[in-house]
Amino acid sequence: MKHLLAVAVLVALLLFLITRNVSPDRYVYDEADYMYAAPLGYFANWTDTPTLSLPEFLRIGMRRGRQTGGRQELSEFIRQSKRCPLYRHWHGPLPS
Fold this sequence. Notes:
mainly alpha
């Protein structure tokens, strides 16, 4: 019984301490990307799979990234592809 009470007190203390560190603001930039990638699973995030081959990655980026409005299309492609590395590592700069 003592151990259960000690664990309950520690969990309550932990919850009390972390509530001050959780921001009420929306997720921005990297945080939003990581929050999207997290449900893809531990294995997908650990191994960065599924992904594109380097030639395919370059071809798609060169074709869509240079067109007017192509960057929006490229962003939509990345979001629909559910490819973990694209979402976590290959996103553009933060718009100002």
